[in-house]
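Subject: Sanity check before I submit

Could someone independently write out the structure tokens for this chain? I want to compare against mine line by line before I put it in a report. The sequence has 307 residues.
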Amino acid sequence: MRFPDRRSRLAAYAPEGAIVTAAVLYGATFAVVQDALERTTPMGFNLMRFALASVVIAPFAVGRPWSGPAPGPGDGPLRLWWAGVSLGCITAVAYLFQNIGLQHTTTSNSAFITGLFAVFTPIIESVTFRRLPRSGIVAAVAVSVAGLFLLTGADLRIGYGDAVTLITAACFGAWYVRIGTVANRFDVVVVTAIQLLAVAVLSVPVVAVTGLGRVDATVVVAVVFTGIGCSAVAFSLSTWGQRVVDPSRAAIINLLEPVVAGAVGYLIGERLGVGGYLGAALILAGILVAERGTHRPARVDPAARGA
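---
Independent answer below. Compare away.
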């Protein structure tokens, strides 16, 4: 008699588990991508990564119904495509600036600064839905800026790579909010496939100008790992998880991303120094302040669970 209850509890935590898995995959990519970017151009890598992801996910997307468990009034295939393309535009900009930043900063710096998406998410959510941010947001921003100051060398002149990566953090904040508005309206696999395809298509004109770069075994491994595991799989998991988990809560779960990336950076010999580690800790503290009180019990309805 207890088995159904246990299975129900597991189902209730499955969306958060999906986001955790995606965060670990995202965090593991920083060092791999940084090595590849020594050979390819930023958008050249994105083109290969997301083109492969599109090819991998396409067979699973073709023939599936467009709608999710809770389509909105007027939703249909046209709005599905708009949702996927808009997500693709945000993703393309985010990864372009992240890749540029990785060429000019360390793996750990890039990861922790990218983690500021958890501060940007509730701010963008407040603007989007026209509601005042929680009182802790101002404190979170102040703490995070102090952490960024220490992380980047306690210098008022922030480095180019770190500054560019801040744009990535803002874009990912917008991505979490946008995903939260479409996850229940459309099929997860289909909207993810459109998003990945949009990134690949948007990369083409830039690559036509900047070139692809040099492709060798290191680049191929990075493209396969990020294209399949960190795009086709992780993006689908993130979108499915946000059918139940709100954007701000999803952002705090993704704090695992900079933690995993920082651990990988340490293993490959990166050392931040006392000030750097203190700065990273302050950024994490700021993010936690920003997300305090965002957790709500997971709402798992039969339709969402079945999807």
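---
OP: Matches mine. For the report I'm noting this point. Confidence is low (pLDDT under 50) at residues 294-307.
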